[in-house]
Specification:
single chain; mainly alpha; Ferritin; 2 domains; 6 helices; 0% strand; globular
Length: 192
């Protein structure tokens, strides 16, 4: 008798769980399954960024791309693993900023992500100059790494100081810690 009782209770629990989940899935939907305009935690609108925050995020997306693209060129030339490893990290930084751009409905300046191509003319000029310098010698390549990370750190600190959004600040603080580690790595290589 007991095993049968357990099966009945288990069956009832399964039915209740399935019905509850179906109700949750249908909540906020019209007769055709379309959203009714009610908001849930997942679909709640986000407070818009200030124009300055939006501009900084768009710039940061390409600035992280600049670092990645330069480091990949320098790795190809000098075959120093730090360039490759840090380029991988810069790709993660780019992805973090991209998630913020998507969350706030901002256009992605990276687009098709063509290596060495930038929408921002200043970043394009910086890329061209940094690659030229970094290909001169290995020491120059390390100096380029230091320069890029110092620029990233300054820009991230500026973004942190101006941001009024916790998610933006959190991402910028994470990127700042990464850039500080990258700067330490390039500085150490330069001092050897």
């Amino acid at each position: 008798m007991k095993p049968r009782w357990k099966l009945i209770v288990f069956g009832v629990l399964v039915v209740v769980i399935v019905a509850t989940m179906a109700g949750v899935a249908l909540a906020g939907r019209g007769p055709g399954g379309e959203p009714t305009g009610t908001t849930t935690a997942r679909t709640a609108s986000v407070t818009p960024l200030s124009p300055e925050e939006a501009a900084e995020l768009i710039y940061m997306r390409e600035e992280e791309k600049l670092a990645r693209d330069v480091y990949l060129v320098l790795y190809e030339k000098w075959e120093v693993s730090e360039f490759e490893n840090i380029a991988v990290s810069e790709s993660r930084h780019m992805a973090s900023v991209k998630r913020l751009l998507d969350r706030y409905g901002l256009a992605d300046p990276v687009g098709a992500d063509v290596p060495g191509v930038f929408a921002n003319a200043d970043l394009q000029a910086a890329y061209d100059s940094l690659v030229t310098q970094g290909l001169q010698s290995l020491e120059d390549a390390f100096k380029v790494g230091v320069a890029i990370e110092e620029l990233d750190i300054a820009d991230l600190k500026e973004l942190i100081a101006m941001s009024t959004h916790r998610d933006v600040t959190r991402v910028a603080e994470n990127l700042l810690r990464g850039s500080e580690r990258h700067l330490a790595a390039f500085t150490k290589l330069l001092e050897q």
